[in-house]
């Protein structure tokens, strides 16, 4: 594509930059190396699907990108910040500002209603109560659940719970959304709705999205698909 | 939602568990409050002991009599400043269950020796001294039975009988006193020894205990020795102790009971500590996944620590305050029951002490779970969730 060249010359550093990242788990005496000298760049505004066999390290990758696990070697720079040497408390603040997580099993707080679940990350901000309420309302509107604000998770369907989780992930307006099999527990129709919502967040709100999935159908919603196998990526460009 | 309401929602997420632990803490602090005020009521007498006062009682037991003549003989002992004596009445008002601490005394020397302790308006003291059928009553007693100055009050004795067979003495209320050194409302009544002595059918010219003010507390041992030696070979040998020691022995039986009860409450508190610790630990363990999510959302470990610790503190404070409130209610109710033998008061320092115990309970039950939550590893929490 023609714009590729101009992109390289004018584009700032990519949003995500992994350099020679290694990660090894020690499990009952034996070392399992998940990544060895892994390199990856993802530019701002991208929507990347990560696929690969079970145990290939997809979740581990998201954990590294989200600053909830640490690499053994190499550098992870996201949004111009180097994660590898950040202190735990700086990392928490960085997570609150920069990343939204969406999990396969929604992971909502069962004792809080939808609105309070969405509001949870805002308790870490300096926003006033009314500002928080406004942001929660907006986030719930974006995912189309404004009429369920007062419902508790167990009163909501799986798809609705995942929408609440998405609202929670975007309420503090992070640049990056990390989704680990967000549709893994949903039927096809509901999954499609969730994926359309993610696509809309990427397209209309400029969110950079990295989504782990086993489902090739789901991967088609992304702009770029990465196959992770034996610690390395194999890229597959999508035409549409 | 606020951090406060988040703590509250977490604490009350399981209604039954919350209710049960709250109830356990409630009971512990209810007992704690009652026992503390009970203990205080028992020990109130020891508080008014003066360093320079000695109490002479019969060596066999303080309930045995002493001859009245001892009063004058003791006066002659060197170093003795003032002497008075008091004779136990075994008194009650109208019904035996309305028991009253009552003594027959020599009013003038009695009021002189206790001048610093008994607060009685001078004109009432004068009226009492000059009225052979007079009595003075503690403010608490007067309030309890609605007695007013000048009232003619029938006081009965379960010991003394008049020559006509009657066990009731008609007394005029000449004064209402307070205890100056203690904030406990005063209890008890005092009447003229002469009036009792002339009318009673037996035990004439005997008294119960003799109270001495010495010229200098440093002389106490010497004087006590001199008294006990003087009467050693008489039919009424004496035992002379400091007032504090005497009061302590007087309440010893009740005091032992209070020790037992305090141990029981201590054991109860300890059990509740274990139960609440266990419940808190369990509740946090069940929430490992949720805590992992909160940390992923950007909650710093120290905030998670504070949230969990606050839960434990809040639980202890709510349960404890409810328990103390119930103890206060109990004390207030019993204060209005005529004849209730003890005046239970939840003094400010008991409230303060209970607050301290609540905080300690909250910290002990919350620190470990909070620390565990602090250490929860996010990635590991997800694999387990
Ligand atoms: N905390 C950990 N301690 C030890 N080993 C771990 C840990 N987390 C992951 N692993 C191991 O690392 C490997 C990669 O795990 P990961 O969860 O990243 O795989 P995945 O690609 O997400 O698999 P799935 O598709 O099943 O979710 C697995 O062999 C797993 O057992
Ligand atoms: Mg996985």
Structural class of chain A: alpha/beta
Overall shape of chain B: it is: elongated
Indicate the CATH topology of chain A: Rossmann fold
Number of helices of chain A: 8
Distance between the termini of chain B: 25 Å
Identify the strand order in the major beta sheet of chain A.
Answer: 6-7-8-3-9-10
Question: In terms of quaternary structure, what is this?
Answer: heterodimer
Low-confidence stretches of chain B: none
Largest interface: A-B, 31 and 25 residues
Protein traits:
heterodimer; A: 240 residues; Rossmann fold; 6-stranded mixed beta sheet; disordered N terminus; B: 385 residues; 2 domains; 12-stranded mixed beta sheet; 18% strand; binds adenosine-5'-triphosphate; binds magnesium ion
Describe this entry's structure for a reader.
The complex is a heterodimer of chains A (240) and B (385). Chain A is α/β, with parallel strands linked by helices and 240 residues long. Chain A has one domain (44-70, 87-231): Rossmann fold. In chain A, 34% of the residues lie in helices and 27% in strands. In chain A, the strands form 2 sheets. In chain A, strands 6-7-8-3-9-10 form a 6-stranded mixed β-sheet, sandwiched between helices. A 4-stranded antiparallel β-sheet of chain A has the order 2-1-4-5, covered by helices on one side. In chain A, helix 5 crosses helix 6 and helix 6 (158-170) packs parallel to helix 7. Chain A is globular. Chain A starts with a helix and ends with a strand. Chain B has 2 domains: 3-44 and 254-384, no CATH class; 65-235, no CATH class. In chain B, helix 2 crosses helix 9 (243-250). Chain B contains 14 helices and 14 strands. In chain B, strands 1, 3, 4, 5, 6, 7, 8, 9, 10, 11, 13 and 14 form a 12-stranded mixed β-sheet that branches. The A-B interface holds A 59, 63, 66, 68-69, 88-89, 92-97, 101, 103, 105, 107, 109-112, 115-116, 119-121, 123-124, 129, 132, 168 and B 1-3, 6, 9-10, 12-13, 289-290, 293-303, 378-379, 382, 385.
């Amino acid at each position: 594509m023609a714009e590729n060249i101009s992109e390289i010359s004018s584009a700032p550093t990519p949003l995500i930059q992994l350099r020679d990242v290694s990660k090894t788990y020690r499990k009952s005496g034996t070392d399992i190396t998940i990544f060895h000298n892994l390199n990856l760049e993802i530019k701002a505004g991208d929507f990347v699907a990560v696929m690969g066999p079970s145990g290939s390290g997809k979740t581990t990758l998201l954990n590294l990108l989200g600053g909830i696990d640490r690499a053994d070697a190499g550098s992870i720079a996201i949004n111009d910040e180097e994660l590898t040497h950040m202190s735990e408390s700086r990392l928490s603040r960085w997570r609150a500002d920069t990343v939204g997580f969406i999990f396969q099993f929604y992971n909502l707080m069962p004792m809080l209603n939808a609105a309070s679940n969405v509001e949870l990350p805002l308790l870490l901000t300096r926003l006033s109560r009314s500002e928080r309420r406004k942001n929660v309302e907006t986030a719930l509107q974006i995912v189309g659940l404004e009429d369920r604000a007062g419902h508790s998770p167990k009163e909501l369907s799986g798809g609705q719970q995942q929408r609440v989780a998405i609202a929670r992930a975007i309420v503090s307006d992070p640049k990056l959304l990390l989704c680990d099999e967000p549709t893994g527990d949903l039927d096809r129709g509901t999954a499609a709705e969730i994926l359309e919502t993610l696509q809309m967040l990427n397209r209309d709100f400029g969110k950079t999205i990295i989504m782990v999935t086993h489902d090739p159908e789901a991967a088609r919603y992304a702009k770029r698909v990465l196959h992770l196998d034996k610690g390395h990526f194999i890229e597959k460009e999508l035409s549409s | 939602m606020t951090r406060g309401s988040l703590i509250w929602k977490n604490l009350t997420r399981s209604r039954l568990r919350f209710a049960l632990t709250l109830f356990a803490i409630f009971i512990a602090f209810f007992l704690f409050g009652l026992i503390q005020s009970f203990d205080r009521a028992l020990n109130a007498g020891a508080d008014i002991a003066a360093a320079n006062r000695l109490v002479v009682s019969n060596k066999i037991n303080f309930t045995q009599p002493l001859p009245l003549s001892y009063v004058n003989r003791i006066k002659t002992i060197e170093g003795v400043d003032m002497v008075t004596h008091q004779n136990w009445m075994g008194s009650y008002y109208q019904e035996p269950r309305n028991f009253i601490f009552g003594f027959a005394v020599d009013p003038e020397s009695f009021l002189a020796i206790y001048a610093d302790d008994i607060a009685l308006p001078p004109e009432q003291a004068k009226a009492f001294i000059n009225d052979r059928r007079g009595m003075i009553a503690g403010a608490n007693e007067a309030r309890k039975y609605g007695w007013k100055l000048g009232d003619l009050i029938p006081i009965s004795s379960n010991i003394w009988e008049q020559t006509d067979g009657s066990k009731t003495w008609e007394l005029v209320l000449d004064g209402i006193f307070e205890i100056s050194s203690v904030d406990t409302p005063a209890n008890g009544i005092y009447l003229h020894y002469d009036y009792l002595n002339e009318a009673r059918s037996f035990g004439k010219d005997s008294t119960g205990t003799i109270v001495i003010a010495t010229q200098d507390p440093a002389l106490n041992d010497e004087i006590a020795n001199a008294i006990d030696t003087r009467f050693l070979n008489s039919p009424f040998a004496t035992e002379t102790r400091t007032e504090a020691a005497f009061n302590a022995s007087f309440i010893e039986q009740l005091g032992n009971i209070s020790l037992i009860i305090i141990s029981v409450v201590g054991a109860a508190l300890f059990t509740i500590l274990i139960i609440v610790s266990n419940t808190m630990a369990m509740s946090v363990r069940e929430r490992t996944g949720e805590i992992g999510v909160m940390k992923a959302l950007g909650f710093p470990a120290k905030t998670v620590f504070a949230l969990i610790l606050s839960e434990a503190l809040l639980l202890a404070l709510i349960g404890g305050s409810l328990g103390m409130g119930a103890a206060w209610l109990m004390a207030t109710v019993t204060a209005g029951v005529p004849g209730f033998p003890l005046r239970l008061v939840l003094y400010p320092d008991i409230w303060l002490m209970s607050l301290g115990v609540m905080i300690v309970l909250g910290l002990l039950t919350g620190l470990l779970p909070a620390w565990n939550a602090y250490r929860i590893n996010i990635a590991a929490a997800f694999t387990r969730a």
